[in-house]
C-alpha cells in the first residue's frame, strides 16, 4: 500500500498545547499519523504554552488525549514512539525573547540539522497577531519553509477578517498560510468535487433549472459544553454557518472550472459567496436558544446568544435563479445529524400529486457518510402503490490508511497542498454576507425564541420553508 508521507525532518509547534482543542483533536490526529508511519525518523512535536509544564507532563497530556479517543485500541508501540518526539516549551505569546529561546531549543532537539517547520494556532483569535509577528522574527532560525496553520474562526466580521489578512500578509507569503476549517478535512466533504468532476450525470443534475430547493442541515443533540466563553461572543451563525455550512454549499453549487486547481476552485467559491442574498419576512431567518442555555456556567444574565438558526436565501446567479437555499443548524436538539438534501422539481403534470415524492440527492456527513439517490416507482397489479427506490453508497474512508480530519489537513499542510484549505478572499466574502444578515436581524428585531432541550427547535422553522411550499426533509424517515 502506498501512503503519502512526510519525508523530511520537521518541527510541529502547537500554540495552545494545554487546551481542549489540542487534547481532543490534534493529539489523536498526530497519533494516527505516527501509527500509519507517515512521519520521518526525525521530527519534533513542541507544545508551546503559557502554563508551566515539563516534557513528561506534556507527554502525559498527549497520552490522555490519545487514550480518550482510541481507548483500548491504542497501539502502545506507536504511542510511545510519538511521545518520544514530544516536548514542551513554556513561554509568553508576546515575548520575542521566548521565541528565540524556543528556536534554540528546537535546533538542539534536531542536533543542528535543518528541518521544516509548521506552527499550529490552537489559540483564541485575539492572540493570532502577536504569535504571527514574533514567529516571523525567528523564521530563519526555525527554517526557511516555515508554515503557519490558523484554525477557524478568522476574525469576527468582515472588517476584522480584512485586518487579519493584511496583517498576516506583512509577515508571510500566501502559500505559507494555511487557513483550516476542519469540515473540509472530512472524507465525505472532500468527495463532493471529485464526484461532480467524475460523473457527468451528477453534474448535469446539479443545475438550478431542475432543482426546486437545497437544504443543508447540521443538527446536534449536545449543548455548548466547555465552549461557553467562545460561544457567547459568536453564536450559532458565526460558529456554524459563516464557514462550515457555506463551504458545503459552495462545493455543491459553484460553477466547475475546467481544471480543478486550487486557485480556480477558490475563484468560483468567491463568485458564489458574493452572489448570496437573504430573504425578507423579515430577513429570511428564524433564531432560537435552548431553554437550559442561560443556566450554563459563564452565560451572561439575559443572554440573547443564538444556539439555533434556520436561514432562507437565494443565489443571484442565472444558473440558480429563484432556487431557494435553506440552512438549518442548532444545538441541544433531538438528534445529531448532518446532511445535505437536493430536491428536484417534479414534472409539470405531477406538481399537484401529493402521493408522488420528488426525486432527491442526499449526502450525509454524520453519523454515516454516504450518498443517496431517491427515485419513485410504482408496483402492484390490482392496486398501484407508489414507493421510493433508494440507492445508497458509502462515502466513508475505509481501510488502514484513513485519517481523521485534522490528521488529513496537517499532512496536507506539510506537503504544501492547499486544496482543502480556505483563502482570505473566501472568508471575507462569507463575512460580508453574514454581516449583512446579522445587521438585518438587529434592524428588524428578529426574536431569539426559546425552545425545549431535546426538541426539534423553534416551530417557525417550518413556516420559513413552507412559505415556498416545501418541508424539511429527514433522510432517516
Polypeptide structure, described:
The chain has helices at 20-35, 55-70, 76-83, 96-109, 128-137, 139-142, 158-171, 187-190, 192-198, 200-205, 228-253, 262-274, 405-414, 424-443, 460-466; strands at residues 10-15, 43-49, 86-90, 116-121, 147-151, 177-180, 211-219, 276-278, 285-290, 308-315, 325-330, 337-344, 360-366, 370-379, 385-394, 448-451. It has 477 residues and is an alpha/beta fold. It folds into two domains: 10-151, Rossmann fold, CATH 3.40.50.720; 184-401 and 442-466, Dihydrodipicolinate Reductase, domain 2. Strands 7, 8, 9, 10, 11, 12, 13, 14, 15 and 16 form a ten-stranded mixed β-sheet that branches. The protein has a six-stranded parallel β-sheet with strand order 3-2-1-4-5-6, with helices on both faces. Strand 13 (360-366) and strand 14 (370-379) form a beta hairpin. Helix 11 crosses helix 12 and helix 12 (262-274) packs parallel to helix 14 (424-443). The two termini are 39 Å apart. The relative contact order is 0.14. The model has no long low-confidence stretch (mean pLDDT 92).
Amino acid at each position: 500500500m502506498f501512503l503519502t508521507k512526510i519525508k523530511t525532518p520537521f518541527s510541529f509547534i502547537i500554540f495552545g498545547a494545554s487546551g481542549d482543542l489540542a487534547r481532543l483533536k490534534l493529539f489523536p490526529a498526530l497519533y494516527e499519523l505516527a501509527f500509519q508511519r507517515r512521519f520521518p525518523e526525525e521530527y519534533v512535536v513542541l507544545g508551546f504554552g503559557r502554563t508551566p509544564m515539563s516534557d513528561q507532563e506534556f507527554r502525559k497530556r498527549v497520552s490522555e488525549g490519545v487514550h480518550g479517543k482510541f481507548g483500548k485500541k491504542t497501539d502502545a508501540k506507536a504511542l510511545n514512539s510519538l511521545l518520544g518526539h514530544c516536548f514542551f516549551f513554556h513561554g509568553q505569546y508576546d515575548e520575542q525573547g521566548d521565541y528565540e529561546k524556543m528556536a534554540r531549543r528546537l535546533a538542539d532537539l534536531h542536533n543542528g540539522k535543518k528541518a521544516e517547520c509548521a506552527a499550529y494556532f490552537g489559540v483564541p483569535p485575539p492572540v493570532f497577531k502577536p504569535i504571527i509577528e514574533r514567529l516571523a522574527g525567528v523564521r530563519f532560525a526555525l527554517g526557511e519553509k516555515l508554515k503557519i496553520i490558523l484554525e477557524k474562526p478568522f476574525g469576527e466580521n468582515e472588517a476584522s477578517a480584512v485586518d487579519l489578512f493584511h496583517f498576516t500578509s506583512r509577515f508571510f507569503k500566501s502559500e505559507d498560510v494555511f487557513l483550516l476549517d476542519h469540515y473540509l478535512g472530512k472524507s465525505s466533504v472532500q468527495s463532493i468535487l471529485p464526484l461532480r468532476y467524475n460523473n457527468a450525470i451528477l453534474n448535469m443534475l446539479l443545475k438550478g433549472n431542475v432543482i426546486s430547493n437545497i437544504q443543508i442541515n447540521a443538527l446536534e443533540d449536545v449543548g455548548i459544553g466547555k465552549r461557553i466563553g467562545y460561544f457567547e461572543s459568536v453564536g450559532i451563525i458565526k460558529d456554524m454557518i459563516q464557514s462550515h455550512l457555506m463551504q458545503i454549499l459552495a462545493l455543491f453549487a459553484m460553477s466547475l472550472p475546467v481544471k480543478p486547481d486550487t486557485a480556480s476552485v477558490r475563484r468560483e467559491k468567491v463568485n458564489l459567496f458574493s452572489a448570496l442574498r437573504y430573504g425578507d419576512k423579515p430577513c429570511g431567518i428564524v433564531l432560537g436558544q435552548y431553554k437550559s442555555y442561560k443556566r450554563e456556567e459563564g452565560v451572561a444574565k439575559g443572554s440573547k446568544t443564538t444556539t439555533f438558526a434556520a436561514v432562507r436565501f437565494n443565489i443571484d446567479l442565472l444558473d440558480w435563479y429563484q432556487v431557494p437555499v435553506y440552512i438549518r443548524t442548532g444545538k441541544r436538539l433531538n438528534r445529531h445529524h448532518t446532511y445535505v438534501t437536493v430536491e428536484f422539481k417534479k414534472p409539470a403534470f405531477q406538481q399537484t400529486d401529493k402521493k408522488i415524492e420528488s426525486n432527491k440527492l442526499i449526502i450525509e456527513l454524520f453519523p454515516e457518510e454516504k450518498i443517496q439517490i431517491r427515485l419513485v416507482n410504482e408496483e402492484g397489479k390490482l392496486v398501484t402503490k407508489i414507493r421510493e427506490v433508494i440507492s445508497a453508497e458509502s462515502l466513508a474512508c475505509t481501510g488502514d490508511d484513513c485519517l481523521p480530519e485534522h490528521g488529513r489537513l496537517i499532512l496536507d499542510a506539510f506537503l504544501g497542498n492547499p486544496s482543502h484549505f480556505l483563502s482570505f478572499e473566501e472568508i471575507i466574502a462569507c463575512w460580508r454576507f453574514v454581516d449583512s444578515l446579522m445587521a438585518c436581524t438587529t434592524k428588524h428585531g428578529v426574536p431569539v425564541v426559546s425552545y425545549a432541550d431535546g426538541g426539534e427547535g423553534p416551530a417557525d422553522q417550518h413556516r420559513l420553508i413552507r412559505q415556498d411550499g416545501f418541508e424539511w426533509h429527514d433522510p432517516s424517515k
